[in-house]
Amino acid sequence: MTVERTELSPGYSIARLLRGGWQLAGGHGDIEQPRAIADMRAFLDAGVTTFDCADIYTGVEAMIGEFRATLSAEDRARLQVHTKFVPDWSDLPRVDFDYVERIIDRSLLRLKAERLDLVQFHWWNYAVPGQVETAMHLRELQLRGKIHNIGGTNFDTPSTAAMIEAGVPLVSMQVQYSLLDRRPAGLLAGLAADSGLRFLCYGTVAGGFLSSRWLGKPAPAEPLANRSLVKYRLIIEEFGGWDAFQALLRLLDGIARKHGVSLTAVATRWVLDQPHVAGAIVGARYAEHLPDNLAIFGFTLDEEDRAAIDALLVSCPGPLGDTYTLERDRDGPHGRIMKYDLNKE
Length: 345
Prior knowledge:
By secondary structure, the chain is an alpha/beta fold. The chain has a single domain (5-337), classed as TIM Barrel. Helices cover 39% and strands 16% of the residues. The protein contains twelve helices and ten strands. It has helices at 33-46, 60-69, 73-78, 97-111, 131-143, 157-165, 187-195, 227-239, 242-259, 263-272, 290-294, 303-314; strands spanning 5-9, 12-15, 17-20, 50-52, 80-85, 116-121, 147-153, 170-176, 198-202, 277-283. The strands form two sheets. An eight-stranded parallel β-barrel has the order 3-4-5-6-7-8-9-10, surrounded by four helices. Strands 1-2 form a two-stranded antiparallel ribbon. Helix 2 (60-69) crosses helix 4 and helix 6 (157-165) packs parallel to helix 7 (187-195). The radius of gyration is 19 Å and the shape is globular. The chain starts with a strand and ends in a 31-residue tail after the last helix. Residues 17-312 form the NADP-dependent oxidoreductase domain. Pfam families: Aldo_ket_red.
């Protein structure tokens, strides 16, 4: 199975399936670090050459750095690592160039890299000024050769436009995008059409909810097993509730059986087929689900499939508003589960 690729910026080609690193950061069960590092090889060998991580994913940059150190020069050249720059909520008033450079240098050290392939910037609180200035500090580090590409993470449309208008060469925006959450298809898609911005999408299978495991099952009882399930259970409620979710699963299961793939593969394929989407980030601790993930490149959704999905989605608009707006309300159910100060040493 050949992994599709796309050019994210001139001369910079990535796999359209990205190996996500959030599940390696804890909160999803114990991690066998030697196994996780060894299994990274399976992704690289399969053509999944692009890994996603973050400065705030505890220990993950260092794990990928250990993996990078085991590679030949040829394989290191094939591997792309996308990280993030996420200053803590409490630090936002104090972010200056020295702060930005210190965090970027730390990521370079952890990843054992001479240059970061893509740095995806996030700013927790729009009420604190400095977002555009901080993005321009990243631009200065790009000009100094420490960063190859600059992207964003979870910015709404006006904030993304402000950075682009200031001269920050954003190539991508990492967004939550799935059949359950189609907010990026709204205002942000219009900006992407005008600017060439591409989407790197997480949550495409809603933390595992978009799978046959949940087909025909009752809603899970509290407390849920991990923070990912809590997050996406809230999204299911925004989508229309458990009954609407089950209707979606039944439809996807029929399409999956028709093509001989998993329900999860259908959900991921749908996201990859949306305008402006460069890639889907699939979280993985180990490589046991890799063959199923690769199946998304072995089939095509036909007109009948797309029409059936569209017909169901009309009655289930999902979360409304601009990208990541619900999550920015710290007093709301989505904001209350977030962790805002994870970038401490």
